[in-house]
Amino acid sequence: MPTRSRPAAVLAAVGATAALLLSACGSGTQSAPAESAATVPVVTTTNVYGAIAEAVGGDRVRVTSLMNDAAADPHSFEATPADAADVAEARVVVLNGGGYDDFATKLVETSGDRTVIDVVELSGLKAGGDEEFNEHVWYSLPTVAKLAERLAADLAAIDPAGADAYRANAARFTEQVAGLQQRLDAIKARAAGQRVAVTEPVPGYLVEAAGLVDATPAEFAEAIEEDTDPPVAVLQETLDLFSGTPVRVLIVNTQTTTPTTDQVERAAQTAGVPVVGVSETLPEGQTDYISWMGGQIDALGAALDR
């Protein structure tokens, strides 16, 4: 699916930031100093990836996440000179890719030699050609497990003294991810084939893994993601999901609400359809991927059981 395009002002801001970075970095290539415990600097574009990096790196890494505001739409994020400086100092950069955080791609291109993990590329999920692609790959549990393993390998290459710790942490984390998958499998066992609606494609991989059917008109979800109004007929088709034989659950992206999504949510509530919130970054006060994702999975399961 298409990613919401960035306004020209954002691209200009990224360009200005990149220029500042170039002037700060001289020739652009950094020498690689020897790392010691708790000093490997890691930058991630969102705090979701930051939480995963911290789970794998433990106290041997220093993680900076550029997007942390649970009340903001990540698609509207604008990089600052401070963000450029963080990327310039990082030994490992984790970005989503797939058009989701193009600002980070631009910063990495001008920041010299460092390890860059593009999670969309790592996932192997992206289809070729013009087929629409759901770039919200942190909702794909197999992808998250791959990321943990890749982080362990890359951090071990930078900090060999911590290799055993990184691998042990990654193994522990991937075991917890397997536990999340078991919870999804349990939902699938009792609710496979049930119809749900979404305001945006954000939880698509989770919905699919739970064996649920996304009944939302594709044009509606794409319009909301691209910050435009869906055609009247498409909106009505979406509202009709809550009448007759309604969908079982409405899943809303809590970070992108509009009068249109509010209207859809009111229709669900009027019909007695449970509403489950999901987000693109960790909520305030939440620092652990497993508990965050597990809470969303459990909320979905409870809503389906109503």
TrEMBL record:
- Coiled coil ranges (UniProt) are 163-190
Q: Where is the signal peptide?
A: 1-34
Record GO terms (molecular function): metal ion binding
InterPro entries, per database record: Bact_metal-bind_prot9, ZnuA-like
What's a GO biological-process term for it?
metal ion transport
State the superkingdom: Bacteria
Its subcellular locations are: Cell envelope
Give GO cellular component annotations, separated by semicolons: cell envelope
Keyword terms: Coiled coil, Metal-binding, Signal, Transport
Question: What is one Pfam family matched by this protein?
Answer: ZnuA
Enumerate the PROSITE patterns for this protein: PROKAR_LIPOPROTEIN
Protein name in UniProt: Zinc/manganese transport system substrate-binding protein
Q: Which organism is it from?
A: Pseudonocardia thermophila
